Amino acid sequence: MKSNQLHLRSLTILMVMWIATLQSCDYVDAPYGSFTPPPVSNRKVLLEDFSGHTCANCPHASRIAQQLKDSYGEQLVLITIHGGDFAYPMPIVPPDSMYYYDFRTPEGDELNVELGIQAWPTGSVNRKTINNTRLVYYTAWGGVISDILQEPPYAALEITNGFNTSSRQISTSIKCDFIKELPDNYSLAVYLTEDSIINWQLDQEAVPEDVKDYVHRHVLRGSFSGTYGEAIIAAPDSGASVTKQYTLTIPAEYNENHCAVVAFIFNTTTKEVVQVEEKKLIP
Questions:
Q1: Which residues pair with 247 in a beta bridge?
Q2: C-alpha 136 chain-centroid distance
Q3: Strand, helix or coil at 222?
Q4: Closest alpha carbon to 192 in 282, 73, 70
Q5: CA 239 and chain centroid, separation
Q6: Contacts for 51 with CB less than 8 Å, ≥ 6 apart
Q7: What are the tens digits of pLDDT across the range 50-67?
Q8: Counting runs of H as helices and runs of E as strands, what totals does the chain give?
Q9: pTM for this predicted structure
Q10: CA-CA distance, 262 to 219, in Å (whole number)?
Q11: Which domains does the chain carry?
Q12: Positive or negative CA dihedral for 126, 130, 134, 137?
């Protein structure tokens, strides 16, 4: 009788331990490897996605970038830069007039050459140098972005836009406030992007691969101040502030309702971005 009682008691203890073990396990639901945004702060990150409309792999990277944007929201600013071999426009030969549109910009061409891009898709996160290169393969974007967002903000940007519908001139004022004392020289660059441009794109994940109505996101359209902008301050103290004004006239084909001004402060020597801000042209 005592033997049976001991046996039942042992089974009961094992059952309790098994239930406790189940309750302590963490089950991870798909998708695996997703990124959890850090607590919201004023720190923001610039992701530049180098692409081309005849690059069949580039849409996959673009979708990864958009997923990251959906996760991080305003803390992540995207620019898609068309340049290099896969960005060349094709001749218009009706009725198969595919890839004739020219997404290239002087700024994009300059960055492609300077960064030595030889294969697409690729990107740059804050133009940060990692392992002797400023290029980051798209599978690593999320990790680099997450790491940078853990850092405190060194500066803050405020963008004020105006748009003259008759002349199609954009006027923008960029206020740069430095939160932390920094030892180096800093520059300001101001770009124009346009979202949701409908045009051809080669996409190996689509059927057919030649997509006529592909939605091109966050496309670089030009700059207010050149690829590397202008130097604005040397060794700023905490509390230092600089304001700059710029104008840019845009073509009639640009949809002002989809345009945005992107401004970023970067180290003049290393080119690394310390803060970025984006504001739609038409709120």
A1: 171
A2: 12
A3: strand
A4: 282
A5: 28
A6: 58, 61, 62, 80, 81, 82, 86, 87, 120, 121
A7: 999 999 999 999 999 999
A8: 4, 13
A9: 0.85
A10: 11
A11: 33-280 (2.60.40.10)
A12: negative
